[in-house]
């Protein structure tokens, strides 16, 4: 017998994008990763999938707990002086909490 509550989780990737680089004769597609941005399309799809899975299993979603992931990078002035580290965080993941639906 399953419990009254159920959890699932997901983690989205950082944003990836491609740009065309090179001159007129040697163009190529280059893929970049932006560590400061989340792939929001993927995040939204993962969240939707989690809701659908909870519903199919007989649970109502009662909470979504965002998971922020932090990082830091050095900050350098235009003249090259180290100013310290700058921290930032991205919400790339979430825990989805469901409660078993009441039987009619």
Report on the architecture of this protein.
This protein has one helix at 40-56, and strands at residues 5-11, 14-21, 28-38, 59-76, 82-100. It is of the alpha+beta class. Helices cover 16% and strands 61% of the residues. The protein has 1 helix and 5 strands; from the N terminus they run βββαββ. The model has no long low-confidence stretch (mean pLDDT 91). A hairpin with a 5-residue loop joins strand 4 (59-76) and strand 5. The protein has a 3-stranded antiparallel β-sheet, covered by helices on one side. It has a two-stranded antiparallel sheet with strand order 2-3. It starts with a strand and ends with a strand.
Question: Could you write a compact summary of the structure shown?
Answer:
The protein has 104 residues and is of the alpha+beta class. It is built from 1 helix and 5 strands.
